């Protein structure tokens, strides 16, 4: 199993440009999520999905869009990049059972380092 | 806002010593997880402890949970250079459908 894969590893954007960060997992996990990691801020949840066709906002959703058309893929779209979106982005996946209480191990991808100039 | 806060923010010890990191949280939880992140890499799950458990062990790791004080600690015994990493706690809540991560403790093991 490849686990959770993310592409690209690095990206530089100019302010106003748009792009899509790709995330895929081959573990048949229902739950997928996107985090951003900034120095001294830990991980902050951007969006998450509990299954194909179901997404919801996390703590910092503004400026980002997601969709989940398949179980395997969960792309993150930056609509109009801003310097404040310079960060490292992590995708994660896990099982999701009824009454989910965060008790499943999250599997993380290697991250995408994004710089917006 | 972050739910968990790790303490200390940074810790530097000699190889072979024990390392203790603490996590405090604000609201009642169902479970708490600890993750490790090596520099430039994704997070890796270490251990999960449920709210009805007080202590769990995994190899050289020992995690405690005190729900009355809303705090958890991670002890790494007989530290090795390979333990150099950042360590994060993450809290889970019934029906919340998400984990909330703390800011992390950066651990450095000196040879």
Task: Give an account of the 3D structure.
The complex is a heterodimer of chains A (117) and B (111). Chain A is 0% helix and 50% strand. Chain A is mainly β and 117 residues long. The model of chain A has no long low-confidence stretch (mean pLDDT 93). In chain B, strands 2, 4, 5, 9, 10 and 11 form a six-stranded mixed sheet that branches. The relative contact order of chain B is 0.35. Chain B is built from no helices and eleven strands. Chain A binds chain B through residues 4, 31, 33, 35, 40-45, 48, 50, 56, 58, 90, 92, 96, 99-103, 105-111, and chain B through 2, 30-31, 33, 35, 40-45, 48, 50, 88, 90-104.
Keywords:
heterodimer; A: 117 residues; mainly beta; seven-stranded mixed sheet; four-stranded antiparallel sheet; globular; B: 111 residues; five-stranded antiparallel sheet; 11 strands
Count of runs of 4 or more consecutive helical residues of chain A: 0
| Major sheet attributes of chain B | 6 strands, mixed
Structural class of chain B: mainly beta
What structural class do you assign from the helix and strand content of chain A? Answer: mainly beta
Largest interface: A-B, 29 and 29 residues
Strands of chain B, total number: 11
Q: How would a crystallographer describe the biggest sheet of chain A?
A: 7 strands, mixed
| Quaternary structure state of the chains depicted | heterodimer
Q: How many H/I helical runs of chain B?
A: 0
- Could you list the spans of chain B in which at least 5 consecutive residues all have pLDDT below 50? none
Beta fraction of chain B:
over 45%
Instruction: Give the overall silhouette of chain A.
Output: globular
Helix content of chain A: under 10%
User: Low-confidence spans of chain A: pLDDT under 50, at least 5 residues?
Assistant: none
> What is the beta-strand fraction of chain A?
over 45%
Rg from alpha-carbon coordinates of chain B: 13 Å
Percent helix among the residues of chain B? under 10%
**How do the helices and strands follow one another from N- to C-terminus of chain A?**
EEEEEEEEEEE
Nearest-integer average pLDDT of chain B: 92
What value does the Rg of chain A take, in angstroms?
Answer: 14 Å
């Amino acid at each position: 199993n490849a686990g959770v894969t993310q592409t690209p590893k690095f990206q530089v954007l100019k302010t106003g440009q748009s792009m899509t960060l790709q995330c895929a997992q081959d573990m048949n996990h229902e739950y997928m999520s996107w985090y951003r990691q900034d120095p001294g801020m830990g991980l902050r949840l951007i969006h998450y999905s509990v299954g194909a066709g179901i997404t919801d906002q996390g703590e910092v959703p503004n400026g980002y869009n997601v969709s989940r058309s398949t179980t395997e893929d969960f792309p993150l779209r930056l609509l109009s990049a801003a310097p404040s979106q310079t960060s490292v982005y992590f995708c994660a996946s896990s099982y999701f059972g009824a009454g989910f209480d965060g008790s499943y191990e999250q599997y993380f991808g290697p991250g995408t380092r994004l710089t917006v100039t | 806002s972050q739910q968990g806060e790790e303490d200390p923010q940074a810790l530097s010890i000699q190889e072979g010593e024990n390392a203790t990191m603490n996590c405090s949280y604000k609201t009642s939880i169902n479970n708490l997880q600890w993750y490790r992140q090596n520099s430039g890499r994704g997070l890796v799950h270490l251990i999960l402890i449920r709210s009805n458990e007080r202590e769990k062990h995994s190899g050289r790791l020992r995690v405690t949970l005190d729900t009355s004080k809303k705090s958890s600690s991670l002890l790494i015994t007989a530290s090795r250079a390979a333990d150099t990493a950042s360590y994060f706690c993450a809290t889970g809540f019934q029906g919340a459908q998400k984990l909330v991560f703390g800011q992390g403790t950066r651990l450095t093991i000196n040879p």
